[in-house]
Amino acid sequence: MYAYLLLFLAIICEVIATSALKLSNGFTQLMPTIIAIIGYSASFYLLSLTLRTIPVGIAYAIWSGIGIILISIIAWLFFMQALDLAALIGMGFIMFGVIIINLFSSVAGH
Questions:
Q1: Which of 1-10, 31-40, 61-70 has the lowest mean pLDDT?
Q2: Cα-based angle 89, 4, 16 (whole degrees, multiple of 5)
Q3: Over the chain, what is the mean pLDDT?
Q4: What is the C-alpha to C-alpha distance for residues 59 and 33, in angstroms, rounded to an integer?
């Protein structure tokens, strides 16, 4: 369970970093650039810790699936980037896949 907490924290750091990356305007804004670098560094460090117990394929599936959903919500709320029906359906499938992995996969390391 500890590894999944670390994975969740890694995802949060990655989402913060990606949001800051958008605000960095191609690394021309200092503070968002620093936040992006620190966020990605923390994220990858935390992800590396999760890989001690969670298989890399499972960790990455969860990481990318939840990350896509969270960053899409932030982009919609803060950057006014709309999502069409196809994007929403696709993200629904991604989340469904993450749920299936966590509930039913014997390699998920529960």
A1: 61-70
A2: 65
A3: 92
A4: 26
Residue type present at position 64: S
Name residues whose C-beta falls within 8 Å of residue 107's C-beta, 6 or more positions apart in sequence. Answer: 55, 57, 58
Domain spans of the chain, in order of start:
2-104
User: What is the full DSSP assignment across 22-35?
Assistant: HHTTTTTSHHHHHH
pLDDT value of position 104: 83
Residue length, the chain?
110
CB 67 within 8 A of CB 15: yes
Query: What is the Cα–Cα distance from 85 to 74, expressed in whole angstroms?
Result: 17
Q: What is the pLDDT of residues 17-65, one digit of tens each?
A: 999 999 999 999 999 999 999 999 999 999 999 999 999 988 998 998 9
DSSP character string of 2-68: HHHHHHHHHHHHHHHHHHHHHHTTTTTSHHHHHHHHHHHHHHHHHHHHHTTTS-HHHHHHHHHHHHH
